[in-house]
Amino acid sequence: MSSTGTGRDVTVLIPLCKANPDKEADLRKCPTVRVKHVIFDCIDEKETLMNYVQRLKKVVKENDVSVVLPTTDLSTFAHAALARDFPHIPGPSVESCYLAFHKPYTRKHLDFAEMPTPYDVLDLDSPTLLQDAEKALETVGLPAFVKSGTATLAYGLKKIESYDDLKGALIDFKTMRDEHPDFMFAPSAAFYRDYFTEYLDVKKYPLALCDVVLVEPFLDAETLCTMDGCVVNGKLVHWTITDELQYDGHEAKFTSMLGPTNEPQDVQTRMWKIYDDIMAKMIECGFNDGYTNIEIFKMKDGKLRLCEVNARGSRLVQGIYRQVYENANQDYVYLAAGTGLVPATPPPTGRHGVAYMAKFLGHQERPGDFLDFDKIAQLKSDPDVYISPYYKRDDELADIPGSAGCDICAVVAYGNNRHQMMKKLVDVLRLIVKKPERLAYPVSEENMMSILY
């Protein structure tokens, strides 16, 4: 394809990702570089992170890879390691990605919110774990949240109302670790240990070699927003703010995303101040040529508190970007990194979008038991919906204790206003979901307005 930018030819490696023809087609439309080859690579079932990175180094050498595109928290580590070992590959440091990934260290080093959140850390292998748990609740109070120090996708997340609740949650974490030692989303220090020993200063960050969980207060927030931006050639660029859907009565009551934000300008300005302070620390620790999104709670008293930091883009937000903002493609940031091209803040189009994660609770069957994949295929021609399945219809789904549900696909719906986009989402879910009673976060005409306003 012709290029209006630098004309640089690139071979792109996408770690921890199954082959995705739609994504490859999008990458080939990048206006600033020519994508000559896209390599999708999945981790093998028994590989540790270090084993995987060593194998990827061979892929880089044999295929002359010049760009690594991370799409998940875990893949940021592969990207950062390859950027360290291959000077021609632009990317962030392992340390900066680690501060975003490891929740206790995020709290310790990156919590620059208006009201920092108290927390405590529990080592699952501590001989005094139950006594440590009592002290943790003295520190953070009740109700509290317990979550894995490293896991993604909300595995193990639980609201704690009592000491007995916390003991039960710790048993779940131990079960998860012991029964699924190779499961990369479990709190498995063994999976990361060799990698961290090689690429991270483990004397500075000793928790890297431990299986730990984070205990922090349950934050009964009014809203949750996500700030997106990138750092290219050392320059920080703001992108957008998106809101998250709220489901009162759920332990984790915020999920999925809406764009553009409804927050007033003064609140947005305060949020960007927190974002800038966090990113200053990230850049100090080596973050560069990458994308970030940072989630901020707005409490009922108006104070802003940090939820989490992610050293990569969000596939949900990218779905919203397809129609809600102009020239807003997170992947293109990585393709153009190292060329001297710093992206601009994307302007809004006037459209609205909602990106919804279809999470299902209970014993996991096959994706095809929950979703109608034939109907999903038919909706490809509908300009007001974009569906991204994470699995094929007959794939196996892990049944992990303590899980907040299994994500099977993302559904993005568009409209000229928030009401119109949400009605479209409801219509699509009615069409494709076979077992709506199993949805972790049901969306209906009845609750639509209460979610939106």
TrEMBL record:
<dbReference type="GO" id="GO:0016874">
    <property type="term" value="F:ligase activity"/>
</dbReference>
<dbReference type="InterPro" id="IPR011761">
    <property type="entry name" value="ATP-grasp"/>
</dbReference>
<keyword id="KW-0547">Nucleotide-binding</keyword>
<keyword id="KW-0436">Ligase</keyword>
<protein>
    <submittedName>
        <fullName>Uncharacterized protein LOC118406078</fullName>
    </submittedName>
</protein>
<keyword id="KW-0067">ATP-binding</keyword>
<feature type="domain" description="ATP-grasp">
    <location>
        <begin position="107"/>
        <end position="341"/>
    </location>
</feature>
<dbReference type="InterPro" id="IPR052032">
    <property type="entry name" value="ATP-dep_AA_Ligase"/>
</dbReference>
<dbReference type="GO" id="GO:0005524">
    <property type="term" value="F:ATP binding"/>
</dbReference>
<dbReference type="GO" id="GO:0046872">
    <property type="term" value="F:metal ion binding"/>
</dbReference>
